[in-house]
């Protein structure tokens, strides 16, 4: 497995597991426009991240996994926007984290597309 694929699979798996071990921070960034409980969306996104990590890790599904990872990074962007909006009056450190996540999506998407190739 390439370093790119291993790193992406590791990032997705780690984040996916965190959705179950420490769901509360993820609950807080679920957009209010989504129906149902934020916890349900936290768990669903955790499952999605774990499934995509597994797809990226396996050579036969790596292309599809990379494309799915790119789509996942696009899909979670509204949560990052919500976090930035919610934390706009927080401490400078929290604001830096929240606003720093927004432009980080572009290199994550590029990384996933690179793995898909």
TrEMBL record:
It comes from the Bacteria. This is DoxX family protein. The lineage of its organism: Bacteria, Bacillati, Actinomycetota, Actinomycetes, Micromonosporales.
